[in-house]
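Lecture notes, continued. The same structure-token format from the folding unit now serves as the input rather than the output. Read the line below as a description of shape only.
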């Protein structure tokens, strides 16, 4: 069955809650279940994902806190490891956050529709060019493309259209029902939104824990660092982020920031303690281009 035959617009009625709806369902007692049971397997592969760095990051997280904020959610490795009972999760990528909302609110619909899409090169490009009109359809398309795109990369062109070519073999499974249900359960108590990071953390108060993981490159340690990063997260935004982080720390929040291990970044965060950490690059297309790189943690 091809994508158009799935008839997303005729599926069961979707609750008109949208992004930002907070559910009150209590989180199951599954502390560190995703790390132990699922080996921290992410729902999607996201550039800059922190799954491989959790052993460095977790020791800098507070043992107790009120509310958890993560405004650059991405793959959500730290959230899924901590499994906080009260969280506000956000990202500037609307399609990403809609996907999480639909998995939280309609996991069985996702599980029903996703396997209907074929894992072929021809089907992939039909799906890539499609524009589903309902929220669940958009989430199914997003998951499908992220699963089968070359190297699992999310990339859009200047017009905002996903443009990554087909890259997976035909035996790649498209849908893992148990994993989708687990992700949905872990997201069940969280408030999800999309938008600017400063707005997302504006309600943080003393005793809350805020984790910032902005987009940044680890490939340019030379004089072109600032210019190269401007294409993914402007220097003005980096300055604004450092200012917001310091204000939150002064307010009494526990603040943790992942960022590039570069002198210009260190200068922005001189208010915080820092620790350089090393990991293997994972986003390169071939193993021979994956090398050891350093990043930095800043914390109060």
């Amino acid at each position: 069955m091809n994508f158009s035959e799935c008839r997303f617009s005729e599926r069961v009625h979707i609750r008109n809650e949208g992004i930002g709806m907070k559910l009150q369902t209590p989180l199951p007692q599954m502390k560190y279940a995703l790390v132990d049971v699922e080996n921290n397997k992410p729902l999607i592969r996201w550039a800059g994902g922190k799954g491989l760095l959790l052993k460095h990051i977790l020791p800098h997280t507070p043992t107790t806190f009120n509310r958890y904020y993560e405004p650059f959610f991405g793959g959500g490795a730290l959230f899924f490891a901590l499994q906080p009972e009260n969280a506000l999760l956000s990202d500037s990528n609307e399609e990403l956050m809609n996907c999480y909302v639909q998995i939280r609110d309609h996991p069985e619909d996702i599980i029903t529709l996703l396997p209907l899409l074929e894992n072929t090169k021809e089907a992939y490009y039909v799906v890539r060019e499609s524009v589903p009109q309902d929220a669940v359809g958009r989430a199914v398309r997003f998951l499908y493309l992220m699963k089968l795109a070359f190297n699992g990369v999310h990339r859009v062109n200047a017009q905002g259209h996903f443009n990554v070519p087909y890259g997976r073999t035909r035996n790649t499974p498209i849908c893992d029902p148990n994993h989708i249900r687990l992700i949905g359960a872990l997201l069940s108590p969280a408030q999800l939104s999309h938008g600017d990071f400063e707005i997302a953390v504006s309600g943080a108060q003393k005793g809350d824990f805020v984790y910032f993981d902005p987009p940044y490159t680890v490939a340019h340690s030379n004089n072109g660092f600032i210019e190269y990063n401007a294409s993914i997260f402007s220097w003005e935004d980096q300055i604004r982020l450092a200012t917001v982080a310091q204000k939150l720390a002064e307010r009494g929040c526990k603040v943790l920031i992942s960022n590039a291990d570069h002198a210009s970044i260190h200068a922005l965060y001189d208010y915080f303690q820092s620790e350089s950490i090393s990991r293997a690059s994972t986003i390169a297309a071939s193993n021979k281009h994956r090398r050891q790189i350093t990043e930095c943690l800043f914390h109060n």
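Point for the exam: The two ends are 53 Å apart (CA to CA).
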